[in-house]
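go over my protein:
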Amino acid sequence: MIAGVPALPAAVFGLPEWAARLTLAGVVLVVTAILLWVIGWIVPKLVARSRASEGPRARQTQTAVSALATSLRYIVLIAGFLAITFALAGGGAAAALSGGALVAVVVGFASQRFLVDTIAGFFILFEDQYGVGDIVRLEPTGYTGEVRTLGLRTTVLRGPGGERMIVPNGQITAVRLLPGGLRRHRLEFLTREPDLVAAALHEIGAPLARAGGPWNAEPRVVRHDGDDGLTRLIAVVDVDVHREDAVGWLAAAVAGRVGDALASPPLQGIDPSHR
């Protein structure tokens, strides 16, 4: 006995010392698995309950639950690893030293990226940069979607097709919040018949806006007349980030409607002020 901590008995339940160590390690492993299962069972229920309400407070609750869940998982895993190492080493002072040395080696190899991601996640949470339920664009990846989970190490987005995008927090260099889940697109039409093109934009875009389509208002048109008889029409529209392919459809529909009135195919892109 050293420092009041007894070494592992030579036998547990009448087993040899090596078997006793394996038994204790197995018990710790089972307890760790049960705790992880309990966390995985409780967290979805808490998240579902918080999603039943709306508003900033509900989103803050979802974000807090998400961060707490990932933190508890890491705590349980690290504690289980240390306990298993301690049990296998025999439970005495030598076990503590050897277990600590082993942990130091593992941490030395694996912690660099983990710590970068975790520290970045801490500042995201501390500064309330974004939360569960927000529609964001993450740079430099350009991934855009709804934040489904925000943990200390990763951010999980849901894309337009329901796909899950998992981004390590340490790789996020900038975040663009998209209010209402909309992103601004622009279409440019070069034509000698601007009134015809503008009318086609109105006839195609306005009904979709009224029907709750991929944009909440019809395209806003800006006209630039040139000296050569050509007019450049710029149509700006705020589009649901989950339905951005509708912008290409709008451009094709207008081009198909006006036919030869266009001097060149329409140009399409993200509005520079909303990248």
Notes: The two ends are 65 Å apart (CA to CA).
